Amino acid sequence: MTTRGAASPGPSAKSIVVVGSLNMDLVLRVSRAPAAGETLMGRQFSVVPGGKGANQAVACARLGAPVTLIGSLGADAFGAQLRQAMAGDGIDTTHVVTDDRSATGVAMIQVDDDGQNRIVVVSGANATLEPIHVDAASAAIDRAALMILQLEVPLATVEHAVDRAVRAGLPVLLNPAPVLALPDRLWPKIDYLIPNESEASALAGIPVTDPSSAMEAAWILRSRGVRHVLVTLGRQGVVIVGPDDARHLAARSVQAVDTTAAGDTFIGGVAVGLREGMTLWEAADLGQRAAALCVTRHGAQPAIPFRAEL
């Protein structure tokens, strides 16, 4: 059984299990965000696979790990396209269910000339993912090295999946996005919590704007029982606080054109690095290298790099 708090030592055949959302991203390229009541002419529209769960699964797969995805799609064209896209990256979609009562989730994403994004998500079938779907994947969970979760599926399902991972001895990596109030019982079961600055602000109750305030927020979150907290700060890098050390890792300097999947790519890099037996600092560096390349490209999943590109 894997010891909680550390991924399996060294490369192995063990997979990463991702429990999370699949969305079709409807992407608008704009010069800037429109003001309230303003009509703004866009420059480009595209439809690309996305969703935090799917993005993180793709990042793990492209960076070299076998991946099992647990999620829910609608019985529609978007659902079929997303399932095909996951299979194209070699992701095991056996436990991605189809709900014929719901539409596939969608995200409307505005990307401005500075590469910043504004996202509105309609959950659709993601809201139908239930604990029984997690239980149906028990064999895959028992064979895994690590579990990744986000909050674009029901919190009850996330809690159940975390409990199932703990019973299997798996480290739990939670990306608390979109940010929600987490129950007290959940915090001590999280081995790696990876919020961005706005999520860290909401969870810790203090403004997070720079490495110093991110460090303070990370200590607050660790005090609730989380083993390791990694606060991502975009171009300001990442702050990491663990049981024995606290560090700020500077970001690589690149010209960002689209930050849509940067956080998901970073998380994929961290998870893959941990699975391969890297230290947390080495795994975070892998995530930063992958995210730095991701933001130089347009789109969510189309921008996520392969390991050989790093």
UniProtKB/TrEMBL annotation:
A single GO molecular function term of this UniProt record: ATP binding
Domain of life: Bacteria
GO BP: D-ribose catabolic process
Family the entry assigns: Belongs to the carbohydrate kinase pfkB family.
Coiled coil: none
Regulation: Activated by a monovalent cation that binds near, but not in, the active site. The most likely occupant of the site in vivo is potassium. Ion binding induces a conformational change that may alter substrate affinity.
Any one annotated GO CC term: cytosol
Tagged with keyword ATP-binding: yes
Catalytic activity: D-ribose + ATP = D-ribose 5-phosphate + ADP + H(+)
Annotated PANTHER family: RIBOKINASE, SUGAR KINASE
One of the Pfam families matching this protein, by short name: PfkB
Signal peptide (UniProt feature, chain positions): none
Residues that hold K(+) according to the record: D258, T260, C294, R297, G299
Gene3D superfamilies membership: 3.40.1190.20
Organism this protein belongs to: Telmatospirillum siberiense
Record: active site: D264
The keyword Metal-binding is assigned to this record: yes
Needed co-factor(s): Mg(2+)
Subunit note: Homodimer.
Pathway participation: Carbohydrate metabolism; D-ribose degradation; D-ribose 5-phosphate from beta-D-ribopyranose: step 2/2
Cofactor binding comment, as recorded: Requires a divalent cation, most likely magnesium in vivo, as an electrophilic catalyst to aid phosphoryl group transfer. It is the chelate of the metal and the nucleotide that is the actual substrate.
Positions bound to ATP: N196, T232, L233, G234, R235, Q236, G237, G263, D264
Stretches assigned to the Carbohydrate kinase PfkB domain: 14-305
Cell compartments where the protein resides: Cytoplasm
General function of this protein: Catalyzes the phosphorylation of ribose at O-5 in a reaction requiring ATP and magnesium. The resulting D-ribose-5-phosphate can then be used either for sythesis of nucleotides, histidine, and tryptophan, or as a component of the pentose phosphate pathway.
Identification of the protein by name: Ribokinase
Chief location of this protein within or outside the cell: cytoplasm
